[in-house]
Structures are given as C-alpha cells and as structure tokens.
Amino acid sequence: MDWAGSLCYIFYSIGAVVSGLAALWIARSGAEDRSDRWAGVVALALTANWCFAAASFRYNHAIVGLTEIAANLAWIFVLFRLFANDGRDETLRLVRPVAASLAFVEVLQFVLLLVGHRYAVTQELAELTFETAALFRGLVAVGALVLLHNLYAGASQPSRRMLRWNAAAMAGMWAFTLNFYTVAYLASRFPQELVALRGLAIAFIAVPFALGFNRKASGLTFSPSRAATFQMLSLAIIGAYLLVMFGLASWLDMLTGNAARLTQVGLVIAAGALALIWLPSKHLRGWLKVTAIKHLFKHRYDYRNEWIRFTRTIGRAGLDEASLSERAVKALADITDSPSGFLFLANDEGNLEPAGHWRWPGLEVPNNPFASEMATIFERDGLILDFDEARAGIEHQGELAFVPQWLVEQPKAWAAVPLLHYDRLVGVIVLTRPLVERKLDWEDFDLLGIVGQQLASYLAEQAGQEALSEAARFDEFNRRMAFVMHDIKNLSSQMSLLLRNAEKHADKPEFRKDMLVTLRNSADKLNTMLARLGRYGKGGQEEVRAFDMGAIVKTVSDRFARNHKVMLVRGEAVQVTGQPDAFEQALAHIVQNAIDATDTDNPVMLEVYSDGLAGVVQIIDSGQGMSPAFLRSSLFKPFVSSKEGGFGIGAFEAREMVRAMGGRLEVESREGLGTRFTISLPLKSANEILAGPRAAKQAESA
C-alpha cells in the first residue's frame, strides 16, 4: 500500500468512526422536537457506511460509488427537512421540485456507475463517463448550496439560531464536494491528496452538525481565542505561500535544460529571501491582526488580555526596569499598538510639562507645550484628542483654537489621552499612530478613557508617596536641627555665666585668662556650625527694601571669578525691591551650581537688565544640561543632590527665597548644551505704582 492508500485508510476510518458516533449521539441525546432529527441520524449513518467502504476498497470501486450515492440522497433529504423546522415545506412549494431535481440528478449516478463498469470499453468512453459523473456531482453541490442559502437567509431569527450549526456544517460539506469534483473534472481523474482529505473533512463536518441538535444549540456561539486565531491565520498565510512556491516549482519542471535548473534555483533563493523579509514584518502582523479583528470578532479588544497585560506592565518595577512614567506610556501604547508615546504631567500651577517618553527620544518639545485652555478642556470634558480630526478641522468641545500646533505638524502624533484623577488633570499621554493606520472609534475612546483614569491613579499615588517621603526627610532634618539648637543653647549658657562672673572677677588676671580661653572655644564651635550650615534660613527674616541688583551681581561675579572664569556680559544698574542678602545668597547658590556643572575652560556668563516690569538676572552655563524628567522631579526637590556630599537644598531654597520676595526663578536646559537660570524681581518703580492703589484700598477699608 502506497502513502496515498495509507492516508485514505486512516482518514476515512476516522470519518467513519466520527460520523457513527455523531449519529448515535443525535439518536440518544438530540432534541426530540426536531422534525429532521432522524433524517440527520440516517444521513450520518450512511455517511459512516460510505467512509467505511472507502477505507476498505479502492476509491473507484463500485461499492464505494453506491454507498456515496446513498449518503448524498440522505443529505438532500436532510436539507429538505430543515425547511420543515420553519414551516416552509408547506408554504414554499418551490422547495419540493428543486429537492426532487437534485435527488433525480444524484440517482443518475447509478446509471453512470453501471456504464462505467460494464460498457466503458474504450478510454474515451471511460473519460466521458467520469467527466459526466463529476459534472452531475458538481451540479448537485451547487443546487444544495443554493437551497442552504435560501434556507438561512429566509429563516426567522429564532430559526436561524437553531439552524446555524447544521447549515454551517452542510455548507462546508457541499463546498468541499463542489471543489473536489471541479478539480476531478478538470484533471479527468480523482486527485489522490483530495481523495484522502475528503475523509478527514467528513469527520470535521460531522461534529458541528451533531452539535446543532443539542437542546441548547441556539445559545451556543463560536468564540475563538484571538491568539489562536492570529496564529492560525499566520500559518494559513505561510501555507498558502509555500503552496504557491511549490506550484511554481512544479510548473518549472516542464522546462528542460540548464535554463530550467537555473530558474528553479533562482526561484528558491528569491522565495527564501522574500519569506525572511516579509513574513516577520511588524507591518504584516499588524495588518493581519486588524483584518482578523475586523472580520472575525465582535469587539476590537480582548478586554481580559488587555487588562492582564496592562497590569503586568505597570507592576513590573525594579532596579533594572523603566520608571513609572515610561511604563505608563508603554501600557497605554500597547493597547492601540502605537510604537511610541510621550507623557506630560501637570505642575503646581496646572501647566503641562514633559515628564517622560517611551521610544520617542527625538521629539522637540517647546517651553509651553499645551495652552492652559487646552488643559482645561482635557480636565473638564475628558476629551481624547484625535489629531487627524484636528487636522481636518473637526472639533467636539471647542478645542480647535487651542490644539498645540507643534503636535498637529508632527505627522506621528495620533491621539492625546488625558489622565484624570477625581476630575483633576494629572497628565496627558500623546500616542503615535500604529504601523497599520486606522481611525479611532468609540471602542478606542472608551478603553483609553478608562485606562487613562487608572494610570492617573498610579501617578497620583506615586506623587503622594514622594510627598510623604519628602515630609519624612524634613522631619529628619528638623530632628538634626534640634541637636544644633541644643549646642547653641549650651554656648549661650556658657556666655551668660561668663558675663555674670565677669562682673565680680574682671579685675583678676587668672579669670581674664580663663575667659579668653572660653571665648575662643565657643567661637570655634560656632564657626564650625556656621561652616556646616551656611546661611540657611536668613532670607525670611530680612526686611524688604529697594536695592541695586546690578551691584550685587557684580560683587558675586567678582568673588567667584577668583576661582573660575565668570563673565558679566551685561551689567545694568537696576533698582528692585526685595531682600539684598537673600538675593545674594540665592544668586550665589545658582552661580556655584553653574560652575560645578561647567568645565574649567568654559566660562559661566551673567547678565542683568530690566524688561520694563522686573529686574532680570540670567546665569548661563555650557555644562551637560539636565533632562526634562530631572528638571521636573529632582532639581527643586529638597535633599536630592547630584553632587557627592551635597546637602540637596540649595536650588530649593534659592527658589523659595526668590518667591518670598515676590519674584520668579525659571530654568531652561538641554542635555549636552547647557542650562540657563533666570531670576526676576519686581522693579522699584513698578512696585511703587502698584503700592499706591493698595495703600488707598487699605485706607478705605480702615
């Protein structure tokens, strides 16, 4: 027995067993109120008999032909009885003649079978008989498929739910039969591979047909796993690709000579190269996924799997893992298959600032990325901004006037998802468009909105933890200051005791000698503490008054120029109001940080001028610069220092001192380029103009 005969024996044996078991199951457990129940049992039993005959004899044996005719007549009768479940065997009188015509054509197979085995004495007559039989079988299959279409299309909705499994199984059977006999007619022979597969196809068809007789069949639905579906589609594409290549190679076998061999080798190389380049493509996988979801599933997303993936992405924390900001962007981008994204978080003033990205390092973000009105719309309406709609001039909440133009001009920008926590805007994530372009729909908006709220809660929780940690560090600092105050109190007690004793013993040389030693020790202790603590805490106690900002800048510049190249490129005399010592201390902090960040050969540049409303000092260095994440989360955080042994409150205190004087401290930095700090204090003249109305208002209230 050759390999084709072995496959026929195995596959038809499987078909016989499965069909027989299906018939037995319907007879014992099928719905008793189905009028076509016993017709289905007989059809499956005769099909099992035909499969048994095909496994036992050659496929062109007369017994196989007779049993196939009996099985086909039984299936035609089953198809006719299916109309009775909807009452249409009485009302649609056209069904009877069509079914009778199909049965008559199938009965003609007896005549053709007899002619083929008794009277086809020549090769031409045998081929004519074979082609006629194949043509008649194809006509029966076409007629049966037409009846099935009319059966299902004209059935009521309850009948459709009851008939869908039976109709689907019979449609598969007749479709396979049509293709089988079409190929046989064109080739004038039975193809061995399809002959073997036909037995396996019968086994696959018998199962859903029997399932249709289940009492709960109307409630059953086919819900394939998405992962399994994608894998099966991928395998189907690969299989189709290999079949095409195999067909081309077989066709080239008809060529002769060296040209044929060369062409075959070239085809194999080209096919392999195409497979390596095309099949692993992300674009192909994305297209396959979108196509499968669109045509095979009711919903775009498998919500259970999406939630599991989201939770694992967010919960994957550790020393070697990405920050929460980066994981948040990735978790949202994975949902829409976006290749990258950018996170913006709201600062203390409610403005959105860059806070991190995932695979989008080259995005140039301006100083004010989102207008305050746009942030208000995000917070008030929870709007998910579709940039394609914005580019087309479509708006929903009056947002077109405030959409960031720099993102509209960025072709990769696809959607902006607000992160809302208790109706408060925590941040916004901008996603790039997927590799397979598509339009955002209602399911995207619903899922992205819910996930955005969940991400906002994680980010808010992290901010709360950072605030608690900062408060704990302040508490530790206060405890340390308590020890310093205790030492100062001891020194104060010693000084007081020394003064009281001096009133009595000041004329004694020994006492004066001991007094000098005590004073020297006390002074050393105070100097040690002062050197350790610096001048922290003084700014809030000094009285606000007018002073020359340019003079202080010149003094600080000269002092630091002794140890590093510091250039005062512009030094105007500017009268401002504030606390001179606090301003000098804040300026010294920033200049020292600029010197620490700059190479010895590169200067730190200072300039002071008036912009009409405020005195402005700019400190510019050409150091390594700072990342947006460091600017937002670390630069002005107390007790966080990038310098070894640093106290970590210099920049924080400088900003607080400037704010206490009614000014502002701003910073701009680019990694690899440098940093610019800007201190602004109100001008004396501007402050006097504003003081007049304030004084008048206070007098009226008094």
TrEMBL record:
PROSITE patterns: HIS_KIN. This is histidine kinase. The keyword Ligase does not apply. NCBIfam families: PEP_his_kin. It catalyses: ATP + protein L-histidine = ADP + protein N-phospho-L-histidine. It holds the Pfam family HATPase_c. It comes from the Bacteria. Coiled coil: none annotated. It comes from Qipengyuania polymorpha. Its EC number is 2.7.13.3. Residues 483-685 form the Histidine kinase domain. Keywords: ATP-binding, Kinase, Membrane, Nucleotide-binding, Transferase, Transmembrane, Transmembrane helix. The gene is prsK. InterPro entries: 2C_sensor_his_kinase, GAF, GAF-like_dom_sf, HATPase_C_sf, HATPase_dom, His_kinase_dom, Sig_transdc_His_kin-like_C, XrtA/PrsK. One of its GO terms (molecular function) is protein histidine kinase activity. The chain crosses the membrane at residues 6-26, 38-57, 63-82, 94-115, 135-153, 165-188, 194-213, 233-252, 258-279.
